Amino acid sequence: MSRRRALDALAAIAMGAALALCLAPFLAVVASTVARGAEAIARVGLPSFLTSRPPAPGEGWGGIGPALAGTVVLTTLTTLIGLPVALATAILAVEFPRSIVARAVRALTKAMMEVPTVLVSMVVYTLVVVPMGTASALAGAIALAMVMTPYAATYIEMHLESVPPKYREAGFAIGMSRAGVALRVCAGIASRGIAVGIAMGIARALGETAPLLFTAGGSHYAYPTSILQPVDSLTLLIYDFATSPYPNLVQVAWGAALVLVATYLAMFAAIRVLVKEVRV
Amino acid sequence: MGVARLVASFMGASAALLIATLVICSYAAPSTTVVLQGAGATFPEPQLLLWIRMFMETHPTVVISYRGVGSGAGQSMFFAHTIDFCGSDPPLTHEQWAKHRGEVMQIPYLLGAVVVIYNVPGLHGRLNLSGRVLALIYSGKILYWDDPRIQKLNPGAKLPHRRIVVVYRADASGTQYIFTLFLHKAAPDVWPWSLVSKAPKYPVMGSGRAVGGEGNPGVAQIVTSTPYSIGFVEWGYALEKHLRVAAIENACGRFVLPSVESIEAAAREAVKHLPKDPRDDFSTDLQLIVYSRSCSAYPIASWTHLVLWTRYPEPKARALASFLTWIAIDGYRHLVPGYAPMPLEGRELLLKAVRILEGESHG
Amino acid sequence: MARDRLFFLSLLPLASLTVAAFLAIAALFVYESLPAFLHEGVELIAGTRWSPSTSPSEAFYGLLPAIVGTAVTSCLALAIAVPLSLGAALFVNEYLPHRLRGAVSTLIDAAAGMPTVVYGLWGLYVLAPLMQSVVAEPLHRYLGFVPLFSCRPVSGYSLLTAGVLLAIMITPYTFAAIYEAYRSLPTSVREAAYSIGATRAQVCSILLPAIRPAILSAALLGLGRAASETVAVTMVVGNAPTLTSCLLSPGVTITSLIATQFGEASLYPYMTSALYAAGLVLLAIGLGLSTYGLVALSRWRRWVASYV
Question: Which of these CATH numbers, 1.10.3720.10, 3.40.190.10, 3.30.750.24, 3.20.20.70, describes B114-261?
Answer without folding.
Answer: 3.40.190.10
